Amino acid sequence: MTASAGPPRRNKTTNRIAIVAVGRLKPGPERDLYDHYAARLRPAPLVTEIAEARGSAAEVRRREGAAILAAIPEGALLVALDLGGTQPDSEGFASLLQRWAETGKPIAFVIGGAEGLDPTVQARAAHRIALGPMTWPHFLVRGMLAEQLYRAQAIRTNHPYHRAWRPA
């Protein structure tokens, strides 16, 4: 993972998937969860961490939003992880990911901080998805996203990791 030291720069990346997230993931279970699944992805996502801002909720969202937008790889298709987004199941997410990949653009997933995403980030997003109707800590979302990216990769390659059946 890369940590941002100072103002984020717009990345030119050959990685097809980038994750721009507020907060620095410290050693611990959330980091271990992310690392476990990111290590299985080919290629591993490029992660840019944005410093958590201080101030009122609106000011925090504005500052973090500006930093997020500045860190998005050039020409990327932006996907915001947002509680108000659509909630695809794993197969649906795999299909969306395939469709997004077929655009030829890098895919940038953005994860806001404790105050959520600024409206400017939401407006810039081509897609908004949620990992269910519950609110999740932003550090946990990174690991959950990595798992779903790995699951989508498994679905696309018919790997046995994903078991599509559900008990009735």
Element layout with pairings:
Elements: E1 2-3, E2 17-22, H1 29-38, E3 46-50, H2 57-71, E4 77-86, H3 90-101, E5 107-111, H4 119-124, E6 127-129, H5 138-156
Parallel strand pairs: 1-3, 2-3, 2-5, 4-5, 4-6
Helix pairs in contact: 1-5, 3-5
Rg value:
15 Å
Structural class: alpha/beta
Shape: globular
Oligomeric state of this protein? single chain
Going by CATH, the architecture would be: 3-Layer(aba) Sandwich
Walk me through the structure.
Helix 1 (29-38) runs parallel beside helix 5 and helix 3 packs across helix 5 (138-156). This protein has one domain (2-156): SPOUT methyltransferase, trefoil knot domain (Alpha/beta knot), CATH 3.40.1280.10. Residues 1-14 have low confidence and may be disordered. The protein has a six-stranded parallel β-sheet with strand order 1-3-2-5-4-6. The N and C termini lie far apart (40 Å). The longest helix is centred in the last third of the chain and has 19 residues, at 138-156. The relative contact order is 0.22. With 168 residues, the protein is of the alpha/beta class. The chain has five helices and six strands. Helices cover 37% and strands 18% of the residues. It is globular. The protein has helices at residues 29-38, 57-71, 90-101, 119-124, 138-156, and strands at 2-3, 17-22, 46-50, 77-86, 107-111, 127-129.
